[in-house]
Amino acid sequence: MKRLTFKERELVALGAAIGSNCIPCVEYHVPNAKKAGLNNDQITHAIEIAESVKAVPADKVLAKALDLVKNTEEKECEDPSCECREVIQPNDDSPCCS
């Protein structure tokens, strides 16, 4: 099995650092990428790719959240002393991750 080169490891680490929004990791791996022989254009390109990969699921979550707001029915709480609103979810059979 072939091992990754120092350059390849730093490119992977940069992607992971951007994907996880980890400033200390970015601060560590950008200089390390330069030590590995990557130039500024290569590092910038790797960062831009990582950001675009990260943006896809973030954009999908945002679109889903906005769609749920738009397509969720609201009804008044039946307790006359309560000022809350009960929200009826369109699909209640999938639990939240928390």
Low-confidence stretches: none
**Number of helical runs?**
3
Mean pLDDT score: 85
The percentage of residues in β strands lies in 5-15%
Separation of the first and last Cα atoms? 39 Å
CATH-defined superfamily of the domain at 6-69: AhpD-like
Q: Globular, elongated, flat, extended or rod-shaped: what is the shape? A: rod-shaped
- Main sheet makeup: 2 strands, antiparallel
What is the ordering of alpha helices and beta strands? HHHEE
> How many DSSP E strands?
2
CATH topology of the domain at 6-69: AhpD-like
Give me the oligomer status: single chain
* CATH architecture verdict of the domain at 6-69: Up-down Bundle
Class of the domain at 6-69 in CATH? Mainly Alpha
Please state how the strands of the largest beta sheet are arranged side by side: 1-2
**Which structural class fits the helix and strand makeup?**
mainly alpha
